[in-house]
Amino acid sequence: MAQRCALSIRIVEGKNLPAKDITGSSDPYCIVKVDDEAIIRTATVWKTLSPFWGEEYEVHLHPTFHSISIYVMDEDALSRDDVIGKVCITRDMLAEHPKGYSGWMSLSEVDPDEEVQGEIHLRVEVVGGPGRRLRCAVLEARDLARKDRNGASDPFVRLRYNGKTQESTVVKRSCYPRWNETFEFELAEPAGEKLCVEVWDWDLVGKNDFLGKVVFGVQGLAEAGQDEGWFRLRPDASKAREDGRRCSLGSLQLQLRLRDETVLPSHCYRPLVQLLCQEVQSGLQDGRVHLVTLLDEATTAECRQEVSISLVKLFLGQGLVKELLDLLFELELAKPCEPNTLFRSNSLASKSMESFLKVTGLPYLHTVLGPTINRVFEEKKHVELDPGKVETKDVGCSGLHRVQTEGEVIEQGRQHLQSYLQELLDAIVRSAPMCPPVIRAAFRLLFQRVGERFPQHQHIKFVAVTSFLCLRFFSPAIMTPKLFHLRDAHADARTGRTLLLLAKAIQMVGNMEPAAGRAKEQWLAPLLPTLQEGITRMKDFITRLVEMEEEEEEEGEGRPLPPPSAVLKEGLLFVHKTRGKGPLLSAASRKLHFCLTGESLSFSKSPGAEHCGAIALHDILAAEKVEEKSFGSSHVMQVVYMDAGGQQETAYLQCKCVNELNQWLSALRKVCGNNPRVLRAYHPGVFRGDKWSCCHQRDRMGPGCDRTRHGVTLQDWSDPMEPAVEAQRLFHHLQGLRDTLR
């Protein structure tokens, strides 16, 4: 039995944000922190106070996490980024919405006294006889907030009880201080006072910074005798808040859902999986009620996306996904439907096919769309066919300037758009052999089913395929390439308009009725000949796609686990040199190309070059972040491993941004999480001189001062299938439908 905690996050958009730039606008992006650890950074949306992000993430967390904070920042090229505001959601708040929270949340001001993090290790006890005393041993702390420019703090502890105050020594430049000091107070009678343990950052100039506090009820402590452990530091809630402070910072539209899942061993779900598989294999039978039929009829619109993803992943793992889709097609076609609106609603069949394409077809999508999307971003052409949105500009040589006419701008835009569309259509019609066999098989079944259902409308079977391939797969990816991992950043206004027109053109080709689109927007008429040609080519492509025979190995029947040699993650990383041995630490180059597979983490001087060396996965003990002060960067990770001689070594690798850092950590943790020698504690600093920079220990091989975070990973499309997890989610959903099913 395994305990899982999965957090789904969708950052939709913002509105009414304050202007931070002299232009009267802002360049907003979001940072998502879980318990004050940054795990996600959205792309920046330039020059707007109402940004749209639409970015989705699923994060696997340790079940004991406390809160999630989303900071809205304003990016500045020449100075430190400005903080606009934040939204903080506690674990308890998420637990109150088991089906998820969706709505607008007001941004609040970032108060330094609320920006606390970390834990402190204390032992508090009541000792003595008649003259009892309150004793508090302050042992150590970990992961304190960084308040100084050097990326650390100078923490000390202040204890308050019964009107008296005592303070510990100051530990310089550490967020992992060790005090090992004991303090005593005379116990008040009756013992109704509270013991307040505060942590502060000492500053030579200016006032000290508050780092958090823990409060103990001494009455309960006197009865229990002793309390020892790690205690989470809390903010100072005693300060009065100004009314209306939340109103002027704007708001965020968010969708959040927390799943606390208890996943049983796979054999516990075998009866449910076998029943579903038998139904899918036997197909639709008259007079028989299917579980899949009940799911189709009883699942509400807000749950349909989640159920479809679980069904698709479960049947991919069973090698029966095309049979599942065929049954869903049959169920959908058995309902009263019009040929022109077929599969246009968000039915279970439509959502399952859409999820199936995203899960199995992302590499194919990148191959087909990638070159054209990159060209649009690089060229930044002004493409416009709508006379109401045309931008005119001066043209001509010096002394002969003139303003382009509206007709010239539109004709120029038509030529650019036609060039992009032709390139894209060329890529699509050439892509039939590259299309994964399992996708071809699903489209073949759809093509046949629709042809049998509407024999008098043979063109509808082509429209059925393009309604998924073009309208639900290609067009959304063209319109928002960031959301399909085609680009790292959102498009600017000009590029976004070009992508929108290109996506609209592909939609019209997919609808296979360009005249209908022209009737709605007359200005699309100049593109009509190209669209008509594209429809003819698209029909030929679909014919080839559905007539191609499946490969003998049936390798596309499911998406199996990647073979050991498959590349899971690769890229250039900067290597920080530290004292130590091992193949990586002795490499001559400072920047190496790393490649993570199911066997090892290898590295070479450049992509495709011969490997300089490798670390076997079973030798990796931990993959964790490194304190910013260690190398002056917040994007450094450490890989702790055993070298060939059995000695523990650490490689420090710098990434270009927080997203790349967390993607590498996530990939490494997924493949190494079950290693028998995995570490439970680590040092977030470096061993420099004669001590660790984090906790100042002098033993290089001494125990770590912070706990490792093996359970924190990001879900990725290439993750291996987890049939037990999907079965548990379907079982949970069916339980929730019991009243409806009755």
From TrEMBL:
Pfam families reported in the protein's UniProt record: BTK (PF00779), C2 (PF00168), PH (PF00169), RasGAP (PF00616)
Record key words, sorted: GTPase activation, Metal-binding, Repeat, Zinc, Zinc-finger
Signal peptide feature range: none
GO MF annotation list: GTPase activator activity; zinc ion binding
Keyword field contains Repeat: yes
Claim: Transcription is one of the keywords in the record: no
Biological processes, Gene Ontology terms: intracellular signal transduction
SMART domains: BTK, C2, PH, RasGAP
UniProt xrefs under InterPro entries: C2_dom, C2_domain_sf, PH-like_dom_sf, PH_domain, Ras_GTPase, RasGAP_CS, RasGAP_dom, Rho_GTPase_activation_prot
Domain of life: Eukaryota
Protein name, UniProt field: Uncharacterized protein
